[in-house]
Design goal:
D-Maltodextrin-Binding Protein, domain 2, single chain, alpha/beta, 16 helices, five-stranded mixed sheet
Length: about 425
Amino acid sequence: MRRGIAATALVAALGVTLAACGSDSGSNDGGSKGSGELSGTVTWWDTSTVGSEDKVFKKIAADFTKKHPKVTIKYVNVPFGDAQNKFKNAAQSGSGAPDVIRSEVAWTPDFANLGYLAPLDGTAALKDQDDFLKQAAASTKYNGKTYAVPQVIDSMGIFYNKKIFKEAGVEVPKSIDELKSVAAKIKQKTGKTGLYLRGDDAYWFLSFLYGEGGDMVNADTKTVTIDNPAGVKAFKTVKDLVDSKAAITDATNGWDNMQAAFKDGKVAMMINGPWAVADTYTGKEFADKANLGIAPVPAGSAAQGAPQGGHNLAVYAGSKNLDASYAFVEYMSSTEVQAQVAKELSLLPTRTSAYGKTEVATNEMITFFKPVVDKAVERPWIPEGGSLFAPLVTEYTKVLTNQSTPEQGAKTAGDSYRKLLKDWK
């Protein structure tokens, strides 16, 4: 699950060993080479949501040992906000890195550029690679090689409470202007706030940036674009939503605050992705799952846009059990497993063949998000892609909380990008 690019860890890492009875293999690959039978330990760092997604992935990982009883899968749930730097530190030191990591799509080229990932071309991990959605596979490649396998793909939509909408007598907004109007009517009729706008994570800013025709950078021309007129307008758009009281926001603990407010019926809308569906259903407002509505993010003045996101599975270059790690990655990204994940968590598969499975084709959330994903804006697959969010979230939060102006926020973010990217314009 994605709590966002700069999410704060709220839970401790959970380590669980999942293995067939009697397996006490070490971290090396034991008899996996030469004997034809896989053995040894594979440590997997999963970054999914504790309390909902992790239960499903833990069980699926355990099922791998039914196919390979001499392999031990050591499951470790690492908070999303910690995982990128934790993996880098472990890989750099040569101690403590997992065999397999669930990598946010922007992390993959970064890890590959640093030499921390094993190339997967020609390995068992890339079984039926032509079956992967092209936009999902794009983030797995760097300098002509493949360094990961796409596990799930996602984008963002607007989640809304159908009961509140019915009580207020409003329709789903299709534009920012309609969003403000709908929020005002909801407040007048129900006393509830229209939108919870997450303010501590710049990933939630991207739909507004794309909606105004902007982007963070242009990788083709090596140009920083966050501070161009479209970028400034996007900052003005989100600030106006808060200033007009169409939305409430936060500076810290944004994911939990947003989810709690929406699940308890204190706000009528939030922007989120398929990773949030399972958790949202646990709220009292959505005991009846039919009360949850999802629609495209309202369009800005230039377009309707949402970012392409997702997660890949990558193998650590220093793994002592590469063969079993490749097999585990192939299993976790297989059509059957992706269909199971879709059924239980409403996460979108990355394999074309999975969409032919009944449990995927009949999933309402997936049938909504798949067209959104098909039109999602592809992020720049550059090593610095994940690092673009830290300076942006600082300015995004400052603008939303009146510590900076849209113009200054855009300029400061742009200056930070040019320092980070060095030879870019």
